[in-house]
Amino acid sequence: MNFQLTEEQEMLRKMVRDFAQKDVEPTAAERDEAERFDRDIFDKMAELGLTGIPWPEEYGGIGADFVSYVIAVEELSRVCASTGVTLSAHLSLASWPIYKYGNEEQKKTFLSLLATGEALGAYALSEPGSGSDAAGMKTVAKKDGDEYILNGNKVWITNGGVADIYIVFALTDPEARHKGISAFIVEKGTEGFTTGKKERKLGIRSSPTTELIFENCRIPKENLLGEEGEGFKIAMTTLDGGRNGIAAQALGIAQGALDAAADYAKEREQFGKPIVANQGISFKLADMATEIEASRLLTYQAAWLESEGQPYGKASAMSKLFAGDAAMRITTEAVQVFGGYGYTKDYPVERYMRDAKITQIYEGTNEIQRLVIGRMLTK
Ligand code: CAA
Ligand code: FAD
Q: Between 1.10.150.20, 3.30.565.10, 2.40.110.10, 3.20.20.10, what CATH number should domain 122-231 receive?
């Protein structure tokens, strides 16, 4: 057993950390306040190769592994959780299913555009009436000659509106529930495909979340991903890896909050001494650091399993569950360490606390992670 990161993984961490501090952190609070997505940041990530970390060079990637990918999401989220999820949704939700299920033509066309960052990706599973019960979707795709006609609404779509390529799940056989779901690659600008309401959110406010509307939207049959009826399996296996991206996001948020709290606890004086001299504060920091280390081990392990071609679905559900719950506790405690100042926008910890909450909700709520883990234990 070797817990040492490779030289390449350490170099990637340093590169992403430098980039995050120089190009992401300075505008994070302003973008959060203004709910502003910044495409320039994504373009700079593309220049660094981050948009295609795990994909082979022949498809525009940099041929690194999934541990490198989670390190990148962690480092970005340490300063801006919105930027972390932009990359996570792009890479593990939009690009992965094309890498895994796409034919050669789809990989050459769509995966390459995503890997090089010429295109930004999104993943559209959830609907107004089907969140946790993903198989309960209503969006339909009716075959008509060489095309499919999509009708329906998707909600809560990360990168909605700003993305160029969408993985959309729809029923090709509405009577067959999950066995009748198929996956499609839909390009921005396709006639009949529009973006609806943009959500106003508690956290990750510079990551756009929107509704997608399909009204007689015609998709060439070449854009069917995998086989007809294979869509639910594609959706679920995509989430197996995606969830670990959210674990990495939660880990980064928690680390950012601890760093800020530890610095503050050394500087802030009350009763004539730094507040960290009180065990009540130093024990908080110790608990935070311990939970972060456990989150990191679970997250890196799940990514390592994926890189090694071993089963990683349970490990990924566990990392997301643990790191998400830990991030919520840690960021709440970070605000506590800052006292009243932590409750204001003068310091970043209130943003970390608002951002942490989503990691317990999306890519399957943490109740659903427990359901997934429980089913795997008893299968
Ligand atoms: N891998 C492969 N196959 C799987 C699978 C997996 N991980 N999970 C389920 N399946 C298969 C089952 O084997 C079964 O196949 P058969 O019919 O051939 O036997 C089939 O799928 C149906 O499985 P279930 O009976 O377990 O399905 P279910 O309807 O009970 O739902 C669920 C299972 C795990 C609760 C699923 O609905 C789920 O994951 N819900 C949460 C939805 C979710 O995570 N949404 C995230 C949206 S994306 C997002 O949020 C992005 C973002 O934030 C950035
Ligand atoms: P519901 O399913 O209605 O759940 C409500 C509550 O009931 C939750 O606490 C839940 O845990 C609980 N519950 C439900 N069923 C059970 C059960 N069987 N056992 C125990 N408890 C249960 N979706 C996408 O497809 N693509 C995206 O890019 C995307 N991005 C998102 C971004 C944001 C900011 C948000 C808020 C959501 C996003 N989602 C996305 C949707 C997200 O995955 C869903 O919100 C989530 O899966 C929960 O679904 P729901 O909101 O409908 O809640």
A: 2.40.110.10
